[in-house]
Each structure stands twice: as structure tokens, then as C-alpha cells.
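User: I've been trying to design a sequence by hand for this structure and keep getting stuck. Would you show me what you'd pick, starting by listing the structure so we're on the same page?

Assistant: Good idea, let's start from the same input. This is the structure you sent:
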């Protein structure tokens, strides 16, 4: 009896300790895609304004603009849907978020030349910078996507540790921004690249509605 009480007390402590997120049904990989969102927050509940609007992008901006670009890449992304889901489950990351990053960074690989961008500096579906990382595997392989998503989760966890009082959504947004700019570039909430994050979240919501 005493051991049972201690066990459930430990579970409650783990689930409510600061800096950790409680275990919920949302982490169950066997759920319908719309219900599963991994370990870093539910993107469908996070506010976003979509792609940034400026004088040169008055038509293709906002949430509709992000969705338009996401839809253009949907066919290419479907090719990697199973792979994206497998890697997402491995790292407890919402597959829709991975799809959004791939869409923004490489349009599902459609604009790459042998896996490289036009500068020859960034590689793979999520475009890892060779000056910072040593890319592994072929550009669209599971090995390489595991590396890229692993780096993303490392950034999110580093933001969680650096800013323990931030919300779940702020941790995710900070991690997404740090994936591009680095941890040291994030000092306050104002350092988060809002244009990047808002576009990614809008695209991710689109892909979530389309089975990712």
C-alpha cells in the first residue's frame, strides 16, 4: 500500500515540476494526426499572423499567404509524409511542424540541386548550414532528417532551460527561431524571429489539416 502511494506521488511530482510538461494523450502516437502534437505544445492553439506583409508582398502574405505556399508544396511533401511522421514520433515533434519547416526551407526539396541550395551552403530538406553542422546521410534520407529534427529539439530544450518561466508556446517559438539564428541570438522574447515563426505556424496548421 505504501509503495503504491509513493509511486503515484512520484508520477504527480514529475508531471507538475517546473520546466517539464505533463504527460497527456497528445503524446500518444497512435491517435488521429489532428490529436497528436508531440511534446512541445499544440500548434493548433497557438496564435499566428502568417507570413509577414510588406510593400513587396501585399497579396501573398498573412495566414492566407502562408497557406498558399504550403499548398504549393503539398504534393512534394506528401512524398515524405511517412518519413516525416516516423522522425516526428522518434523525437516527439509534431509532424506538421516538420513539414512546415521543409516547406519554407526547401519547398519539399523541389528547389534543391543534389540536396544543396543555390549557394551550396545549406543541405537537406530542412537546410542545415554546413558552416555550422556536418550533414550526415543523403539529403532526403531518414538519417539526415533525424539529424535535422534532433538539432531542432536540442534548440527547443536549450530555450526551455535558458528561459524556464516562458510558456510552452514561447519555448517552441524560441526554439524555432534558434534553429535558424542560434541560441545566443535569443536573449529576450523580442529576439524571436516573429516573421519566421508566424509563417511556420500558419503552414504547420495547414499541414495538420492535411494529414500530417
Amino acid at each position: 500500500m505504501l509503495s503504491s502511494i509513493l509511486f503515484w506521488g512520484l508520477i504527480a511530482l514529475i508531471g507538475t515540476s517546473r520546466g517539464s510538461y505533463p504527460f497527456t494523450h497528445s503524446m500518444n502516437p497512435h491517435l488521429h494526426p489532428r490529436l497528436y502534437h508531440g511534446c512541445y505544445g499544440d500548434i493548433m492553439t497557438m496564435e499566428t499572423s502568417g507570413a509577414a506583409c510588406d510593400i513587396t508582398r501585399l497579396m501573398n502574405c498573412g495566414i492566407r499567404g502562408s497557406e498558399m505556399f504550403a499548398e504549393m508544396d503539398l504534393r512534394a511533401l506528401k512524398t515524405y509524409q511517412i518519413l516525416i511522421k516516423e522522425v516526428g514520433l522518434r523525437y516527439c515533434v509534431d509532424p506538421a511542424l516538420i513539414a512546415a519547416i521543409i516547406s519554407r526551407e526547401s519547398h519539399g526539396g523541389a528547389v534543391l540541386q543534389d540536396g544543396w541550395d543555390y549557394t551550396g551552403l545549406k543541405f537537406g530538406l530542412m537546410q542545415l548550414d554546413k558552416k555550422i553542422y556536418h550533414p550526415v546521410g543523403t539529403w532526403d534520407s531518414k538519417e539526415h532528417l533525424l539529424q535535422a529534427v534532433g538539432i531542432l529539439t536540442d534548440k527547443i530544450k536549450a530555450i526551455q532551460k535558458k528561459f524556464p518561466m516562458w510558456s510552452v508556446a514561447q519555448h517552441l517559438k524560441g526554439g524555432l527561431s534558434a534553429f535558424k539564428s542560434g541560441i545566443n541570438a535569443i536573449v529576450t522574447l523580442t529576439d524571436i524571429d516573429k516573421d519566421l515563426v508566424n509563417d511556420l505556424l500558419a503552414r504547420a496548421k495547414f499541414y495538420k489539416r492535411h494529414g500530417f
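That's my pick for every position. To get oriented when you compare it with your attempt: Residues 18 and 163 are 11 Å apart (CA to CA). The radius of gyration is 18 Å.
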